[in-house]
């Protein structure tokens, strides 16, 4: 009797925990809407650092599941982009990356505790946020066109063409979401054509307990944390908060809450061998574009990552490597289109539109572009506001 009572209580608790979360075909489709960003970064980090793919996938998947339960909307977890690029290009060790992730988490927690996140949230105008989102959309499209879609195989271009047609025809279709066709097709295509491209690196289990030294913490702070925080404030915190308001009426997420879970993930994950991660407006846009409307999509992708880590262990990277990069490029393009389209609500205001485009341009072309673009955009916005107020006051006095 006690056993059945315990099971009934457990089922009831699970039901309460997931009461407004769906697990239907649209959430399944949306679950893979951010793969264009996630998979290449995961592969690059694993190949550069030699970390154990199984442990990385499990830690990553658990954070996805927790995020889906906490936010109840498609708030995915992504590898930190600036960190990933620096680690991959400079071939930094896993020890430095883990310490960098820890310092990033601590720094974000300090900014949140001091109220800096709330202060910026009050003074950043929507035009600046739209510029950050537009800049990110441009970067994602350029990445897809330059890195993902180009191929030596003609069959890859046929795959890209057919994939674009499928997405265009099915985008917004709640009965047959596009990713339900793209993902199985990509898996089959990868098994047939991409087996020869798979690299199986020597994997090692790293945790912060072995890595944490004063030297690694200092290197992690200067090489990884400083470049990443500037990007995170613009995209991971403020742009994601604004996008949650745009896409989910009544469910908008305040910047402070996003900053806290961001900090928590990066403080906790290094102790379990997980890579540095963030939230991101691009990831949310990707999940939403391909059908997701609740946290179910994030939980589904998290379960996929955990299952991959458990079943394949260190060879889990092979599963991701077989997925065709050109198809990931297609997914990335449509994720970008959603971000680019958000600028529509400032087009009618010439001043706001110019500020948005200025912020986007600075974000794309400059090192530390997101923080420079954000600060410049805020400055220009309030200068224009002051100029307008001064002009109105002068006209009133003349009259």
Walkthrough of the structure:
- The protein has 399 residues and is an all-alpha fold.
- The chain has one domain (20-390).
- Helices cover 74% and strands 1% of the residues.
- The protein is built from 19 helices and 2 strands.
- Strands 1-2 form a two-stranded antiparallel ribbon.
- Helix 6 (94-113) crosses helix 12.
Domain count: the total is 1
Number of strands: 2
Give the helices and strands as they follow along the chain. HHHHEHHHHHHHHHEHHHHHH
Radius of gyration, taken over Cα atoms and rounded to an integer in Å: 22 Å
Individual helix count: 19
Question: Based on helices, strands and strand pairing, what is the structural class?
Answer: mainly alpha
Contiguous low-pLDDT stretches (5 residues minimum) are none
The overall average pLDDT, rounded, is: 88
Amount of beta strand: under 5%
Shape: globular
**Main sheet properties:** 2 strands, antiparallel
Helix amount: over 70%
Taking the alpha carbons of the first and last residues, their distance comes to 86 Å
Widest sheet, order of strands: 1-2
Helices, strands, pairings?
Layout: H1 2-17, H2 25-30, H3 35-49, H4 53-71, E1 78-79, H5 81-90, H6 94-113, H7 116-123, H8 126-148, H9 154-170, H10 179-193, H11 208-211, H12 214-247, H13 255-268, E2 277-278, H14 281-289, H15 296-312, H16 316-321, H17 325-341, H18 350-365, H19 369-398
